[in-house]
Specification:
The chain has 104 residues and is mostly beta strands. The chain has a domain of 59 residues: SH3 type barrels, CATH 2.30.30.30. 0% of the residues lie in helices and 46% in strands. Strands 6-3-2-1-7-8 form a six-stranded antiparallel beta sheet, with no helix packed on it. Strands 4-5 form a two-stranded antiparallel ribbon. The radius of gyration is 17 Å and the shape is elongated.
Length: 104
């Protein structure tokens, strides 16, 4: 089970996008694609087969997992996550600072 998953709200802790929040769009290995975070400009060639125009497009670039923290709405800050096994056998993620379950 991973500490940060697709759909989670995260906050960037280091780098040029520090302090920005967004939802995780995709997890690829140890990198995350977060919406509207770490935006880069890419020079793209036109592709008539896919009906794409060329030019400079702005898109999200992957950010390393260690540079983000899961956003805790209770405290309004980024928080670390641990795991806990419940009585019914389920494994849930828990915020370390408050002890609340992340997803139920």
């Amino acid at each position: 089970m991973k500490r940060i998953r697709k759909g989670d709200e995260v906050i960037v802790t280091t780098g040029r996008s520090k302090g920005q929040r967004g939802h995780v769009l995709r997890v690829v290995g140890d990198k995350l694609l977060v919406e509207n975070v770490n935006m880069v400009k890419k020079h793209q060639k036109p592709n008539p087969a896919l009906n794409q125009s060329g030019g400079i497009v702005e898109k999200e670039s992957p950010i390393h997992l260690s540079n983000v923290a899961l956003y805790n709405p209770g405290t309004g800050k980024g928080d670390r996550v641990s795991f806990k096994n419940l009585e019914d056998g389920r494994k849930v993620r828990i915020f370390n600072s408050t002890g609340e379950a992340v997803d139920i």
